[in-house]
Description:
Family: Belongs to the binding-protein-dependent transport system permease family. CysTW subfamily.
CATH superfamily: MetI-like
CATH topology: MetI-like fold
Membrane topology: Multi-pass membrane protein
Subcellular location: Cell inner membrane; Cell membrane
CATH class: Mainly Alpha
Function: Part of the binding-protein-dependent transport system for phosphate; probably responsible for the translocation of the substrate across the membrane.
Number of domains: 1
Shape: globular
Number of strands: 2
Distance between the termini: 50 Å
Strand order of the largest sheet: 1-2
InterPro entries: MetI-like, MetI-like_sf, Phosphate_PstC, Phosphate_Transport_Permease
Amino acid sequence: MQKPFTFNVDTDSICQPPSSSTLLVDRTFRILARLGVIIILALVVAIVLEIGVKAIPGIQKYGLDMLTGTVWDVGQQQFGILPAIWGTLYSSLIALLIGGFFGISMAIFLTQDFLPPRLAAVFRTIVELLAAIPSVVYGLWGIFVVIPFIRPLTDVLNESLGWIPFFSSTLSGPGLLPAALVLAIMILPTIAAVSQDALRSVPLKTKQAAYGMGATHWEAILKVMVPTAATGIFGSLVLGLGRALGETMALAMLVGNSNQISLSLFAPANTLAALLALNFPEAGPNEIGVLMYAALVLMLITLVVNILGSMMIMYAQRGTKS
């Protein structure tokens, strides 16, 4: 008769109170963690104060008129950033729609047994390597590859559907669509990586229970796995949007840097980050305050987006628990 399997557990060592060295390590870790949080908060406050103090002259001189103005002319000392605000939000939302769709689809493809584990790991590494490519390289790739590739399609759309505001102009060079496409590729690794972690964190028993109830593979994914991991997936979208709002170099090379407000995807536009990057090198004492004002607005937009995203995630978590 086979002997039953038994675990050999040293109960005496488990029941003993923690040693002094263990307590020291625990306290040291807690102190370092709290110190790290304090340093990060102090750094954020210092950055905001530095930018805010330097933005005071611009705020005092131009006030809210700068937020609603549409003309940026250094020679005439006219500074309006409404087109840049519009371009920042518009390009980021388009990039989020494209990058979010492909990022979540890629996360599902790499985590739900569509590929052998080794091949999935290779694809996962390739996706993560996209995050290591410098922004300026993305910009050059957009100029020499993306714009020539999509221009024939944009011409066809403009000729046949030009009465629709989104296709009302032609793509003569840099514009909103190529900038958004490149931006979508830049945020895709973040969305895909965080979404994969969210899907992998769903217990395997949840998926097995769906199969036990007669669900197909796609029904188990779309009706069980994705809704269960929805909070983490939404968090990846918030992170991707935050990255898109602050992207600078690639957009400065691709968006066209034109202060105009247009719904057309093919028209040139501007963003706050590109505006700052292109004007700071030649800025005089008066322009510094204005640019710092614009930087403060960009920080405020990013802060509001992240706060709203965090609130929605917390609301979703409460709904899941209830």
